[in-house]
Design goal:
Helices cover 78% and strands 0% of the residues of chain A. Chain A is mainly α and 265 residues long. In chain B, 68% of the residues lie in helices and 0% in strands. In chain B, α5 packs across α9, α5 runs antiparallel to α11 and α11 packs antiparallel against α14. Classes of the chains: A mainly alpha (265), B mainly alpha (313).
């Protein structure tokens, strides 16, 4: 029992006031999508979105969504096959580099995406020439954006287990480094890897700055395009995307909490 | 201060260190083989160099070189332009205002959640919702704002038709600079909840009990112990919120229909209309200005954060 806790009345008043203020925009957006010019409410707009006849109208969204999903996939691959092995390697062989690595991993928080874009523009000009202008190449930039978030969750998992002993035990029993990484360490990090992957998906699906200024079509740029011709459709997609991200983060939260229950802290 | 923490805190390095000093079995067999494990770091190093270090250097450098590649301070002179100065000022006051208001409201919410179980329904739900709004929103928050308090918004209509209040009597401010304030608060308050909750949760109930045992009062506890202990964390979170609002682009880009009132929008204009004579590297100069502001703020953040860490050990 935490005796510092506020009285139930104070708790409820703060919760109710702030909760109400924060619910209003989203409730209003929902009502906005239901309202028709004559003042009545209907679900027609929600149904219309998934009508194949309207597929052409909403093409920017669907193209953007498809691109964003590909980007999310490639970004998760970068997290799992580039960041994770590096972090395990640092924990196993270069514990002295840990502070420096942490600084590096958290650095992207301090560099605004809009600043990064100024420098990324010429780099992506080169990438466009060599790898093509496919949307997936943006994943390289997105990897940097998700680095701080993924670092935190993966590092927490690495800290919760004794990677060194696990690796040495597996090596003593004759496992190669790949086996150690894939079959011994990775399964023990699954909590952190899951959280890192989900947060990467959420960040990539919500990214606008870099995609828009490098002229790539992703979910968010699609939303802006649709918003110009049909604000109601944009509102529906906004609610769906926000709800999807909310569920992703809820899964991370619940899974993470279940995990910390087992580790002493 | 830092040495105290590294010696006494539950530093993870300490946990690993004893194991590190033991001889590792495979390496000790026969003649010590050359250690190539550093090669494993090269892909990551190359990646970070190419997509983090290089863009940052290009962004900063493009502010310091002219079109022919010669070093110049001319671009920086553009930062002294009254229009540019005004956008920096706009960015600063909007960020500062939303940071202060967001920090106070966010801290109140954290206080309201104090003592609730971390794995409970309320905490997990608020955490997830905060995460979405703080990190994911951007463009979509602008849309919800337009749907709620835009000129044709649901709340606007309700206030006008039911209560006779016209919130746009003074003009459509929602699409101008003041419109950014409510929209920014929607992600500033959640960010405060995420960053400040750990500090508040680390406040020990035992301190409160000790304070009461020694004859103190509840308000005395907050005045002499609670607020002084939390003040650095609060200030650090405030700086983080300021930097967050200062670098935010997406919400403003989707909301502000015309003009470039804040620095990120000015960078967009500079990037998309680079043909403007004599202004080729204005985007770089603006980026440099932004990096300086954010770097100073985040340096202060790190400095304070290091100081607060000892209370959360």
């Amino acid at each position: 029992m935490n005796r510092l806790a506020p009285s139930p009345a104070a708790r409820w008043i703060i919760g109710a006031v702030v909760g109400l203020v924060f619910v209003i925009p989203f409730l209003a957006t929902f009502l906005f999508t239901l309202s028709s010019p004559d003042g009545s409410y209907s679900l027609d707009r929600w149904v219309a979105l998934f009508d194949p006849e309207n597929a052409r109208r909403y093409a920017p969204i669907w193209t953007g969504l498809a691109n964003s999903l590909v980007l999310a996939g490639v970004t998760v691959l970068i997290v799992l096959f580039l960041f994770t092995p590096t972090m395990v390697l640092v924990a196993l062989r270069f514990p002295k580099l840990r502070r420096g690595f942490e600084f590096l991993a958290l650095l992207p928080i301090t560099i605004p995406a809009i600043v990064l874009v100024v420098g990324l523009a010429p780099i992506y000009l080169q990438i466009g020439r060599t790898l093509g202008t496919g949307a997936w190449t943006l994943a390289f930039a997105y990897g940097i954006l998700v680095l701080p978030f993924t670092y935190r969750s993966i590092q927490a998992s690495i800290d919760a287990i004794d990677v060194k002993t696990l690796a040495e035990a597996a090596r003593t029993l004759g496992a190669g480094w790949v086996t150690v990484l894939v079959r011994v360490i990775a399964p023990n990090l699954r909590q952190g890897l899951l959280a890192a992957s989900l947060i990467s998906v959420a960040v990539v699906l919500g990214e606008f700055t870099i995609a828009s200024l490098l002229n790539r079509q992703v979910l968010q740029t699609g939303l802006v395009v649709i918003n110009r011709q049909d604000a109601y459709a944009a509102a529906v997609f906004t609610l769906l995307a926000l709800a999807f991200a909310f569920v992703l983060l809820l899964i991370i939260g619940r899974a993470g909490r279940a995990g910390t229950g087992r580790t002493p802290s | 201060m830092t040495t105290v923490r590294t010696l006494t805190g539950p530093d993870q390095d300490r946990v690993i260190d004893p194991v590190a000093s033991e001889p590792s079995a495979p390496a000790r067999r026969g003649r010590p083989a050359p250690d190539w494990s550093w090669l494993g770091l090269t892909p990551f190093a190359a990646y970070v160099l190419l997509f983090l270090a290089l863009p940052t250097v290009i962004a900063v450098a493009s502010g310091l070189f002219d079109g022919d590649g010669a070093f110049t301070f001319d671009n920086l002179a553009a930062l002294g332009d009254p229009v540019i100065l005004a956008t920096f000022w706009n960015s600063t006051w909007v960020s500062l205002l939303t940071a202060v208001v967001g920090a106070v409201i966010g801290a109140l919410v954290c206080y309201a959640m104090l003592g609730l179980p971390e794995t409970g329904f309320v905490r997990t739900t608020v955490d997830a919702a905060s995460g979405v709004l703080a990190q994911f929103g951007g463009v979509m928050l602008a849309f919800t704002m337009i749907a709620a308090i835009g000129t044709q918004g649901v709340v606007t209509k309700f206030l006008r038709d039911a209560l006779g209040i016209d919130i746009f009597a003074g003009g459509a401010w929602i699409y101008a600079l003041p419109g950014l304030i409510p929209a920014y608060l929607v992600f500033q308050v959640p960010l405060m909840i995420i960053t400040f909750m750990p500090a508040l949760a680390a406040l020990r109930p035992q301190w409160f009990e000790a304070h009461l045992t020694l004859g103190g009062t509840r308000s005395g506890f907050w005045r002499h112990i609670g607020f002084p202990v939390l003040a650095p964390s609060f200030l650090a979170s405030l700086l983080l919120l300021f930097a967050n609002a200062f670098s935010s682009y997406a919400t403003a880009a989707a909301l502000a229909s015309q003009g470039s009132q804040i620095v990120p929008l000015q960078i967009r204009t500079a990037l998309t209309s680079e043909t403007l004579l004599g202004r080729e590297n204005l985007a770089g100069a603006l980026a440099l200005g932004m990096i300086v502001v954010v770097a100073v703020v985040m340096w202060g953040y790190a400095l304070i954060q290091r100081r607060t860490a000892r209370w959360q050990a």
